[in-house]
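Let us work through a complete example step by step.
Step 1: write down the sequence.
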Amino acid sequence: MIRFKIVTFVCKLLPPAIAQTFRNLMFPIGLARKENRAFEKEAITGSKFKGELGDYHSYRFAVHGYFDWRNIIIAHTICKVKTGDIVEVGANVGTETISYSDLLENRGVVHAFEPLPINYEALEKLQPNYPNIIIYKKAISNQSGVATFQIPPEKASGTGKLTEEVEGIANENTLEVETLTLDSLSPSFQNISFMSIDTEGHEPFVLEGARQLIADTKPAIILEVSPKLLRKYAKQTTKEVFHYFKEMEYECFEIGFSSLQRVTASNLTKKQSSNWLCLHLSDISISKTINRNLKIRTFVPWYLLSSIKPNSR
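Step 2: predict the structure and record it as C-alpha cells.
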C-alpha cells in the first residue's frame, strides 16, 4: 500500500516516457495482483474511475489516471476541431470511455460497445455519473447475428475476442454474443467525430460493417493493428487493412513512442502490434497538431503543461 502511494506520487512528477518505466520497476503488475484491492482514481481528464488493481488495464489507470495516454491526447486534439459523437468498439472496463465522456462534455455522446458480461457490468457501475455514455452489450462485426466470444483470463480483461476457432477451447471459456454492424446503428448516432476500435484481430470485420458510416461521417479512427491476431482471427494482413483505408480516402499513421509515423505500402512488414491513427484526407492537417502534442506530452512533466480536464466531476 505504501509502495503504491509512493509510486503514484512520483509518477505524477514524471513525464510518461519515464513514469511508465518507473512504475514497471517499482510496482510491477505482479505486486499489483498480489495486493489486488479496489481503488478510485481521478482520470487525467477529471472524472473518477473505480477498478481492481489486479486487472492490467485498471492497474495502469490506478497509477497514472490513464491506460493509454496517447489515445486520450489524440481524442482531445480531435474534439477541439471536430464535433460529433464518439464510438468505442471494445470499451473493456471503461478506462478510456470516461475520458472520452469528459472530452465531449455535453457536445456529444460516447457509444461504448462491450459484449463481455463482467466488463459490461463494470461499465454499468460507472454509467450513472456519465449521462453522455450509452453502453451496448453487443459485439460489433460485419453482420448482425450471433457469434462465439472467447472469454479472456480473469486478470486480462482486454483480451477477449470474437472467434470462429473454437477447437481446443473449453466450452466454459466461450459464450454466445449478439453482433451488430455500425452501419445498422447509424440512425442512433449524431455525427461521428472519433472512433476507437480494439477487438483483438476482429478489426477488419468491424470496418467492413461500418463502411457507409465511415464514408458519410469521416471520423478520425484509432485501431489496434496486430499482424498475428489479424492473420489468426480475420485471415487478413496489415496490407489489407491499409488498402481498406486507402479506398476510403484515408491516410494512416502508426502511433509511435512519441510521435506519428506515416504508414506506407513499403513499411507494412512489421510483426509487432501497434495502434494506428487513420485520418480522412480532408482532416490530414490535424496530424501536425497531434504530432506536436504527442512529442511535448511524452517528455515534459504534465504538471508543467496546461490541463486537459474540461471540468472535474
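Step 3: interpret the result. The domain at 69-304 is CATH 3.40.50.150 (Rossmann fold).
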